[in-house]
Amino acid sequence: MVTQTPPSGALCSVPALLARNVRLHGAKPAFREKEFGIWQTWTWAQAADEIRNIARGLMILGIDRGDHVAIIGRNRPALYWSMVAAQMCGAIPVPLYQDAVAEEMVYVLDHCGARFVIAGDQEQVDKVLEIQDRLPAITHILYHDKRGMRKYDHAHLNWLHDVAEEGRVGHQRVDAELDARIAELTLDHTGVMLYTSGTTGKPKGVVLSNRNVIETAKNSSEFDKLRPDDDILAYLPMAWVGDFIFSVGQAYWTGFCVNCPESPATMMTDLREIGPTYFFAPPRVFETQLTSVMIRMEDASRMKKWLFDTFMAVARRVGPAILDGKPVSGMDRLKYALGDLLVYGPLKNTLGFSRIRVGYTAGEAIGPEIFDFYRSLGINLKQLYGQTEATVFITQQPDGQVRSDTVGVPSPGVEVKIADSGEVFYRSPGTFVEYYKNPDSTRSTKDAEGWVATGDAGFFEASTGHLRIIDRAKDVGKMADGRLFAPKYVENKLKFYPNILEAVVFGAGRDRCTAFINIDLTAVGNWAERNNIAYSSYQELAGHPRVLDTIQKHVEEVNASVAQDPMLAGCQVHRFLVLHKELDADDGELTRTRKVRRNIIAEKYADLIAALYDGAKTISTRTEVTYEDGRKGHISATLELRDAKVTAGQTTRREAA
What we know:
By secondary structure, this protein is an alpha/beta fold. Among the domains are: 14-205 and 237-249, 3-Layer(aba) Sandwich (Rossmann fold); 389-474, Luciferase, domain 3, CATH 2.30.38.10; 477-643, ANL, C-terminal domain (GMP Synthetase, Chain A, domain 3, 2-Layer Sandwich), CATH 3.30.300. The strands form seven sheets. Strands 4-3-5-6-7 form a five-stranded parallel β-sheet, with helices on both faces. A five-stranded mixed β-sheet has the order 12-13-14-15-16. Strand 22 (477-478) and strand 23 form a beta hairpin. Helix 2 crosses helix 7 (171-184) and helix 8 (210-223) packs across helix 9. The longest helix has 22 residues, at 302-323. The chain starts with 13 loop residues before the first helix and ends in a 14-residue tail after the last strand.
């Protein structure tokens, strides 16, 4: 069992780390936010004053120990400050996904019994007001951006700035009590509650203690040698555990600066302006950036295209070795240095990656070609494996041991074991306390010795000790003839192609596999424009014969790759269709973290699945969709179903180990 000891002296809470940072780094930047095109900066000392004033204001409003405070909005310093202010008061912050519709918020707000809601803007306030009659526990709604809020009934609405100002003015009334509550906080107090994405059912409230957050932040920061002068860009959902550990846990442990972009639309521009030294992105962000680069190169002059192709060939051959400090000939180093001057350096600057010392990707498998592309440029991109219940980190890739096909070795302080069934288990200082109000799920996930079932199937490589993840354990099954069925393995290979945004593979209990495909509108749309192919909608482009030909080629290439693995050769896709709409979280087909809800998709599109298996060439279908304003509608389409070539060879039957 991992011994859980305090990380350092009295640093038992995020507010305690804040006080330490004021002493050590008071004049250094702690937060930046771009608003109206201008970056604003707060030092640690200034941020501490803002946080304390918000905490005082919450005390005046009557916040109690143990209250749940819902935080809803995009990444903004004031919302991060509100989370720490709630912790100072002995309350528990509960960030929610800002893009969730009102109906999705009902369950979480009711389940946690939130008394206070701190909303980013009018849009979030409107969603809460829409459902407030079903949430009797809510007594106060605070908002940060006052634009559009003038004509609202302010009986239970407060501008966060006014609350903080009242806290500043009335400090003498509450300071003694506030200091007492801060002093009460220990490593075992709840630091935050984060809800799972609800892939297979209702979201679960994951209770994370101060111990979980602080020890994980300490261990992971030391693993990658994070420093007070590092910069990160906080753009991922605040309700996601990764953003919390990066933008709160690690930021407060190391004292580095958290930079908030102006909006999702300006994120890439803001990324270039900040040039973070520590950066996390899911594979789709890296894939989108690479697609953009390749599109631009297609339109570049002949000379630029020749320079790019020539020096990228050098980078792919020796770049990763140079990055890992391995021996490379002097001539190759000279060529690489010239390439850095002419190609790699300007490209990294354009992407916003010039200063990155440590980069991570996780959540889904990333294509080896995509992963190697960034590392060949000299970007220290690595992979990690984690979960909300682990406070993110289960495994990480050490410098010099980075590969595209593994997720690394156990993170510091983490123990990992593989059950006889192939499921991955772990225990660590980051292991969650419990699922809120759900003891049955807690017991089924975490045993008496602290081992947590990840729900993923994987194995350790004997030669390297690195963990490889195969698929979700519940999704790994058998086909009708007993061969192994691992849909995510095939889906990830399909999504390596920039043209494919999403894929869902079927085949459990059947004699062959089939698939739904979503095209990537940006990538395929650019291809269509370059080839003078006119289209008026996603549906029209998705059904274009040349697009179907391209997707068929990708499917058949994946089949050839899958055929090389005797254990998984039966997972080749025999038939497929390109869906007439993108799978969408608003339609319940994906979670807010873009995980596929297989059961819902299988039920909703049962007619399409049946057609894939009965040999039909086309099928007409009608699908319910949800518009941005919450209204429901329907779209109709006639889809073409295609056969894909299956590669013969290593397709022997083999039982799963």
